[in-house]
Amino acid sequence: MTAQPTDRPWPLGVEGLAYGGDYNPEQWPQSVRVEDVALMQEAGVSLVSVAIFSWAQIEPRPGTLEWGWLDETLDRLHAGGVQVALATATASPPPWLAHQHPEILPVLADGTVLWPGGRQHYRVASPVYREHALRLTRLVAERYRDHPALALWHVDNELGCHVPHDHSDDAAAAFRRWLEARYGDVEALNAAWGTAFWSQRYDSFDEVLPPRSAPTFANPTQQLDFARYSSDAWLEHYRALRDVLREVTPGVPTTTNLMASTRTKWLDYFSWAGDLDIIANDHYLDAADPEDHVELAFSADLTRGIAAGRPWILMEHSTSAVNWQPRNRTKRPGEMLRNSFQHVARGADAVMFFQWRQSAAGAEKFHSAMLPHGGTDTDVWRNTVELGRTLKAVAELRGSTVRARVALLFSYPAWWGAELDSHPTNVLSYPATVLAHYRALWRRGVTVDVVEPSADLSGYDVVVAPTLYLLSDDEAANVAAAAARGASVLVTYFSGIADEHDHVRLGGYPGAFRDLLGVRTEEFWALGEGQTVTLDDGTSADLWTEKVHLAEGTEAVRTFADGDLAGGPALTRRTVPAAAGGGRDGAAWYLATRVDADGLQAVTDAVLAEAGVRADVPAAPGVEVVRRHGADGRSWLVVLNHTGDGVRLPVTGHELVTGTPAGDGLVVPAGAVRVLRES
Questions:
Q1: Is position 522 annotated as part of the catalytic site?
Q2: What stretches of 452-566 adopt beta strand conformation (E)?
Q3: The domain spanning residue 652 has which CATH number?
Q4: Is residue 215 situated within a structural domain?
Q5: Is-catalytic flag, 386?
Q6: Choice among 158, 546, 624, 655 that is catalytic
Q7: CA-CA-CA-CA torsion sign (291, 294, 300, 305)
Q8: In the predicted model, is pLDDT for residue 262 greater than 70?
């Protein structure tokens, strides 16, 4: 699909690809702060986030404001040529605020109060907290509105990271207001929630509570709506702070750091995108995943999808190990550079880290940083300097975009719905399912846009919809229209089952996709732990099977070879006639079981082949190639070699990392990154 125009703003005064990270000078003595800027210049740093967790430094006691250290910091950074993403400093309330107003503290579903001592110890619906956060935001904005280092506003930090759901009385009141705005009257709520079941009918909104701990399963639509409310509540908090910043500094863009990945479930970032001037994302590898670079690629493509194809900021990642996983893996030689350029390949025009200097105290002291505990005579520091040089060498990538012929549909509400309790199986993982399909596409070198089901699908030749359990009629029609325009659409098990209220679509599964796919599932056939079945081509499957009936014109491409459903369809295909007005026919595929990796690769390969989609540049397994396109017609290949062997690609142009021509092919050493301006 053709990328969107780059019409969003960008951090002021930042040239080329931005480089930097979180900077916390308040943790260090004056001598270290002076050294920091000199080292930032050596590393090529151009943008740092400042004051994210500085409320207690700015306002150590109520009404006492101490700006000197922050004035000095911004002045010193500006003199050193470093621009600032200045935070609202609201991410962690100071001890005095929680002491004076314990009613700001968040509450879990079981009534547990989350006390100060960590961070983000506030309930997003608290009027008291909101009043103080708005006050501080205005003070910061008014003081630094004209500072030449100010490039970007960084609103709060990783909103909802630790407390996505607050069940306090403030939250209950806000939830009721949200429900009344959504449904209008309580009878509409009763209909949407199916409250005739288990005597749950409400007579007024005043009777409604968040889904707090209950004797057994909570109403599923109540759970779903509380997830929606909570995502909206965090967005409303962002908007409130942003509006103050826009009022005081209308020319300075605003953002907050999202956490788009397979691990952040409870915030619907697609619904946030229109409120952020620039999309920014934090990403960290999962040390337990042997193919963590594939999940990184997925998360970067998801971030680009949230950004509607426009350039975005990688606001945080790590130079090496983090501190918060059970086993924290040190990055291998070259891995930090490859990680950074995977994001760049997929549209990031800024590479930033947590954090600039590794802390000597506190909970994150063993989290790696650009400048580690060991100082400048370390591999981590040498990697930091190398990355700065490399980003400068490829600065011309700035503003270029990525195009894809394949869309992978990803929906936060579908994630929430698919993983609710009381389902045919409660071990289904939505992100694992999505990532399995992404991995099969990644292995074929196919560039993928990760988009929501309501996105414009008109430019895609392949659309993949894994476990799209819950969706609206309009979203279902949007997917069907893609097939009618000639796309090959692959839908998987447990898709189309429920509407947006989590009401089952009657008449047979897969509900919303039944006519598109030409199938009717009579009954789900969930498999027990360790139980597998075999398909007629030898593929192994587990977790899920279905008793499927075929409509006229639908063929069984694969059938179950054993088990209770032996002989029944496991993979089906239906030709979808072209929509009125001509064009080519499309296809609708249905995968009714969870097949092993080889089986899923075979299905993916068949769909790609049918649609004529292949890698832009053929490469060996483990070698990743993504093309970025400039508005002026130029294009660049970003090549990442994740293997232990050097490779040669049959492409020509000028290689930017080494500054050498590639006239008879591009050589990429083992573990290396290369960026080719194509001939």
A1: no
A2: 462-465, 488-492, 519-526, 532-534, 540-542, 544-550, 554-559
A3: 2.60.40.1180
A4: no
A5: no
A6: 158
A7: negative
A8: yes
